[in-house]
Design brief:
By secondary structure, the chain is of the alpha/beta class. 60% of the residues lie in helices and 10% in strands. It is built from 20 helices and 13 strands. The radius of gyration is 35 Å and the shape is elongated. Bound molecules: adenosine-5'-triphosphate. The site of adenosine-5'-triphosphate has 11 residues, from helix 11.
């Protein structure tokens, strides 16, 4: 069975486990999606607030604001670090060259000042290290505090998106919002923002000092500085374009590996290893080529930057050397000037580069806020009904629904299920059986008609209360990483260990769990592979039972398992069905024959309804389905067939 992003979200929703911190174990036996995946289109969703690129930076800053003492600390560390950095060329030029070495005139040298120079250099170096420590440490703390909130918010928002967003998204796409996009912002927050500010302070400080030292020389350097910014920005744009291609290539490569590894059984069984490896190699090659192109461009870019700074240096030397000889510029001032030039050019180049990273982080921030702002399902709305007890009467009143406009899956469907009744829904594949379940759980809303539980329209019942009253067991038993106990208890954290055992006993799971060396503490291994499908299914049933739902839905829950497991599950279900309304969707008719009523779907509506015997007697669609299955099961030979002719 294909299990895209939507399936496990369905399970979490049905379990109401979104807030319980359980991790999905994602057992899937096929490659993620056969259909061409569609990028998540959050624009389809009504945005609560408008996240526009220009607002993103301010919005990111709003996450920093609560931690302002750290921001103040980082700024103080940056400013003091920059000031100390700029002091050094000053000490070297004016004090060491100018005073200690007499500005090139040895008769005026004063070596007595040398210890003071060493002391000054030592003190500035020491303080610079202290401020650099605080800059690094405090910006990491600030970044982590900020990003932690952002990451948690985007994760929670994505969990609460309506299911149709998950249907249309690539498995990796939503994960990438939580992981890659947040990482992008994190990197900039913890490193680059501090560097941008530090470089900004350095540039402003060094330009001021350059003009202070010698305005004439500073005017030679200024146009080169401007040209440098222009060149860096020109390259930046091209590098940005190529980097985006690399980003896509990396995402493509990751998605490919993700798909293949999660569907490794299919890949191996169809001997697709070579084919998949070739595809991976092609993608890897494409990524490699894109990276080489960026490296080539970066090399040309570096040389251009070096050429410009070299030109500025030559210009200053050409103009200043005669002036030093003529005595109009002091040697110490020239040395200080060279030092300050270096302190200006490096941050200038770095600042332009970092601004690209900041832009990328803003783009990532945009994507994050898009997800945070997207319309979410509200589990509790003011004025929503919260019935104290649900008896389990379900009514579909002329319900129509289609996943795409103009293509209804269900057409005018009406059905009443009484409390405590077990109703089986059967019909050909793709007829809309699971869709009925999805509508009942309000994963989707009907296009027309109403669904009522105990007489309340379900869109008036608070979503949390509705989903709490329904237990869902699906064909693919999805377990989350953690212990068996965590998995069962996850839906009801208040449950005691005895409750867990009782639910497991009712689901016929206790016996095999108790036989495991670590019992309920057994960790569900890497994707739960250490348990059979039937065992996982029974744990899934125990989980649904612990919730004590008034309505239990089994969506093809026994179609993947052997007959021994099936009979254990059937046995458990028979006991459970007495106390609650049950809807069983099944392909395997053996699993539904005992139902109080069997509903046969065809062509978007109900074509037959009744008990197994009544439907067989009628000789309609159900009989056809039944006979088709019986034909597939090897029969015992009849007496006549055994008699030799
Ligand atoms: P099966 O017995 O094979 O599980 P089913 O009777 O349960 O099938 P549904 O899963 O309800 O059928 O699907 C009914 C129709 O709706 C199918 O044609 C299916 O392709 C389509 N469909 C189901 N889910 C979606 C979705 N999320 N988005 C678009 N179309 C969907």
């Amino acid at each position: 069975m294909t299990m895209g992003g939507g399936t496990w979200v369905k399970i979490r929703r049905a379990l109401n486990a979104e807030n319980l911190g359980l991790r999905w174990d994602g057992t899937s036996s096929e490659i993620a999606s056969a259909e061409e995946p569609v990028e998540v289109d959050f624009s389809q969703l009504r945005a609560r607030g408008k996240a526009r690129t220009q607002q993103t930076l301010w919005r990111l800053m709003s996450y920093v604001r609560p931690h302002w003492p750290y921001a103040v600390g980082v700024t103080a560390a940056i400013v003091s670090g920059a000031a100390l950095e700029l002091v050094q060329p000053w000490i070297l030029g004016f004090i060491l060259i100018g005073d200690v070495l007499g500005g090139g005139n040895l008769s005026r040298a004063n070596l007595g000042l040398l210890p003071w120079v060493v002391l000054l250099l030592g003190v500035t170096f020491g303080f610079k290290q202290v401020s650099s420590f605080f800059k690094g440490y405090l910006s990491e703390v600030l970044g982590q505090k900020t990003v932690h909130r952002l990451r948690s918010e985007v994760y929670q928002s994505i969990e609460h998106l309506p299911l149709h967003v998950f249907d249309k998204s690539r498995s990796g796409e939503l994960v990438s919002r939580v992981v890659s996009d947040v990482n992008e912002v994190e990197k900039v927050m913890t490193e680059d923002v501090a560097n941008v500010v530090a470089n900004g302070v350095m540039i402003v400080g060094s330009i001021g000092l350059l003009f202070l030292v010698n305005p004439g020389l500073a005017l030679i350097v200024a146009p080169v500085g401007v040209l440098l910014v222009v060149v860096v920005n020109l390259f930046k744009r091209t590098i940005k374009r190529f980097s985006a291609k690399i980003h896509e290539a990396v995402a493509d490569l990751t998605a490919k590996a993700f798909e293949v590894f999660s569907g490794i059984r299919i890949v191996k069984s169809f001997l697709l290893e070579h084919h998949e490896a070739d595809e991976f190699r092609d993608r890897s090659l494409r990524m490699g080529r894109a990276k080489v192109r960026v490296a080539r461009l970066s090399a040309v870019y570096s040389s251009s930057v070096d050429l410009l700074t070299f030109a500025a240096l030559i210009g200053v030397i050409w103009y200043a050397a005669p002036s030093v000889v003529a005595g109009t510029i002091k040697l110490g001032a020239l040395v200080a000037f060279f030092g300050l030039m270096d302190k200006m050019f490096k941050p200038l180049v770095q600042l332009s580069k970092d601004s690209l990273k900041v832009q990328k982080a803003i783009a990532a921030g945009d994507r994050i806020f898009e997800a945070i702002d997207a319309e979410q399902e509200a589990l509790y709305v003011p004025g929503g009904l919260v019935p104290t007890a649900i008896a389990g009467r379900i009514e579909f009143d002329r319900v129509s629904f289609g996943y795409r406009p103009g293509r209804n899956v269900l057409e005018d469907l009406s059905l009443v299920i009484e409390p405590g009744e077990t109703v089986a829904v059967v019909g050909p594949s793709g007829v809309g059986k699971s869709t009925i379940v999805s509508l009942l759980l309000r994963f989707y809303e009907p296009t027309s008609g109403r669904i009522l539980i105990d007489g309340y329209p379900i869109d008036r019942i608070n979503l949390g209360a509705l989903r709490r009253s329904i237990g869902l067991v699906m064909q693919e038993p999805v377990l989350f990483s953690g212990s068996i106990r965590d998995n069962i208890k996850g839906v009801k954290l208040r449950a005691s260990d005895d409750d867990v055992v009782r639910a497991s006993q009712a689901a016929n799971a206790h016996e095999f769990v108790a036989r495991l060396p670590r019992g309920y503490d057994t960790q569900i291994g890497e994707r739960g592979v250490s348990l059979s499908v039937g065992q996982r299914q029974r744990i899934a049933i125990a989980r649904a039972l612990l919730k004590e739902p008034s309505i239990l839905i089994l969506d093809e829950a026994t179609s993947n398992i052997d007959s021994e497991s099936e009979s254990l599950i059937q046995d458990a279900l028979r006991r459970l069905g007495r106390r609650r309304t049950m809807i069983i969707i099944g392909h395997r008719l053996s699993s539904i024959m005992d139902a109080d009523r069997i509903v046969v779907l065809e062509g978007g509506g109900i074509v037959e309804m009744g008990t197994h015997d009544a439907l067989i007697e009628k000789g309609g669609t159900y009989t056809r389905l039944y006979e088709a299955q019986i034909d597939r099961v090897p029969r015992e030979p009849t007496h006549d067939e055994l008699v030799e002719p």
